[in-house]
Each structure stands twice: as structure tokens, then as C-alpha cells.
């Protein structure tokens, strides 16, 4: 009998490498669900500007939210990022999503892609006009990439209870610094509108609730706090809602991280080896 999930003799179920040959292990979704699926379907027509993405990926989610917030026309193309289709490798030899194709040009890296969309000067600007506020937005985006996101994965991948306590504390500390730097009234980072820094963090705000809460008991924001105001505003954004799948997709797609399973991803390897993001 095949070890690769051919159990009923009719249908051969191909397992993903992260499942370690065990069909009972959850793996990543290969198609969005819920509101995100509706958006993906409505953005499936051929277009010059293409976002190659994977539905569970928070780095893709950033670029997707940016496109929606800006109100640009684009095509969303779902790719199975761990099987590295040629159309992805042609743009990004590292085989990571998100990747963007615009005409015959392509590029990758979520923050770079958000800057590229900004530089097109079409639709709503997400970076403020004032050079000092622009610099500050980039500084806090760097904080998110360099500190908050690695801490999120360190905590999620930690298997020992004392490591989990330690990494939860680190993550809270890094989030607190961003909250202290935010406009005091909010609800967003720079005030009443959702801008660049909010979009950079939004996918992980969604995943604190949908992944860290069920897998690690991440607490709800303290009622009445500035952090609660920020979280609720991000979660309530139409662009975030339209690009977010149903809860089950995140539960399934992140089980491999929560179990720190081998062959999960380049993110897992980078975090386990003590480095930054890939
Ligand atoms: N620094 C990259 C990180 C992108 C990234 O790690 N994407 C993951 C999916 S969430 C990926 O493509 N993984 C493929 C792999 O591990 O081989 C960015 O900001 O775009």
C-alpha cells in the first residue's frame, strides 16, 4: 500500500511534505475561503497587474490589503508556494510569495511591493505626504518586520512551556513599543485613516486572534486600551475583511507552525536558526 495516502483505492491523496506522511496532520490551504475567496474570484480576470499569492500567507495579505485599500484594478493568482511553480520562480528565484507582475516586469518582497504600489501614485496613498511622517512610517514598518513578526513565529513555534512564556513576553513588549509610538487618539497608527504601518501589521493582528489565540491562548486586548482600539479598527476595515478567509483556514494552515513540524517553510527554518525573516 502506498505510504502517500492512497487509502480507498479510488482516490490518491497527495500529502504535503510538512505532513510527514501522516494524512491526519493538517496542512496549508490551497484556495481561499469566505470573503477572501469571493474577492479572489472577482479578481480572477486577466490583468496587467498580477499578485501571485497563497491564501494563508500574511506577507501576501499585506499586498492584497494595499491593492484593495488603494482601489486598484488587479488580478489575484493563487499559487501553491511550496511546489514552486515556474511562473513564481520566473519572478522570484527564492520561490517566496508574494510576487507581483506588472506587464513584463516582476518583483517580490512584501514591503518592497507595498512601496512599489505607492510609487505608482494611483488610488489612495498609504504613506503620508510629510517627509518626517513618511520616515516614521518606514521606521515602524522596520520595527514590525525586524521584531514583531519574528517574535510572533518564535512564540508560535515554541514547544516548551517556559519558552512560550518568554516569547509571549517578547511579542507583547514589541507590540507595546508600536502602540506607544502610535497617535494617541487613533484608532489607526497615524490617526483616523488606515495607512502603511497599519497594513504592514494587519495580517498579524488577524492571526493573533485566529492563530495565536487558539494555539497559544493569546489574550484579547485589554478593554478600553489603545491597543484594543487599533485591533478593532484593523479588523473592521473593509479591505482586511475582503481579503480574510474563514477561521478554519488559519487553524489548518498554521497547525504545522504550532507543532514546529519539519518541512514547513523557509520562515520556520529561519526562526529556528535564530535569524530574521527569509
Ligand atoms: N520577506 C518575505 C517573506 C515572504 C514569505 O516568507 N512567504 C512565505 C509564505 S507565508 C513563502 O513564500 N514560503 C515559501 C517557502 O517557505 O518555501 C516578504 O516579506 O515577502
TrEMBL record:
Cited InterPro entries: Glutathione-S-Trfase_C-like (IPR010987), Glutathione-S-Trfase_C_sf (IPR036282), Glutathione_S-Trfase (IPR040079), Glutathione_S-Trfase_N (IPR004045), GST_omega (IPR005442), GST_Omega/HSP26 (IPR050983), Thioredoxin-like_sf (IPR036249)
Polar residues: bias regions: 1-11
A single Gene Ontology CC term: cytoplasm
Region annotated Disordered, chain positions: 1-39
Family matches, as SUPFAM superfamilies: GST C-terminal domain-like, Thioredoxin-like
A Pfam entry, by short name: GST_N_3
PROSITE patterns hit by this protein: GST_CTER (PS50405), GST_NTER (PS50404)
Keywords: Oxidoreductase
Keyword Oxidoreductase tagged: yes
GST C-terminal domain boundaries: 130-266
Gene3D superfamilies on file: 1.20.1050.10, Glutaredoxin (3.40.30.10)
Gene Ontology MF term list: glutathione dehydrogenase (ascorbate) activity; glutathione transferase activity
Signal sequence range: none
GST N-terminal domain sequence ranges: 47-125
Protein name: GST N-terminal domain-containing protein
Source organism per UniProt: Zasmidium cellare ATCC 36951
